[in-house]
């Protein structure tokens, strides 16, 4: 079944420094993050449970995270390669990307 046929919730679990995607009440995946001193959120890694993989849940989670960041006027640094590829595929979210701090190494997606 496709992601659109289920009840999906994307939540910020601040106590665990991760976003979570819940599908029909079951934890389906996470996106770890860190918040820098400048307030920018670094998205670290996307993990989707094998039972939910290849069904669009990673995309739904990242889209939910970025939509929430836009609503809260937050910025991100995409360390996660999945998020990097998402931003390439969906350039309408690239305005949420913060510049790298001085002296930081640049990662190429």
TrEMBL record:
PROSITE patterns: GNAT_YJDJ
A Pfam family the protein falls into: Acetyltransf_CG
N-acetyltransferase domain segment(s): 11-98
PANTHER family to which the protein is assigned, alphabetical: BSR4717 PROTEIN, PROTEIN NATD1
Protein name per the record: N-acetyltransferase domain-containing protein
Gene source species: Hoyosella altamirensis
Lineage of origin: Bacteria, Bacillati, Actinomycetota, Actinomycetes, Mycobacteriales
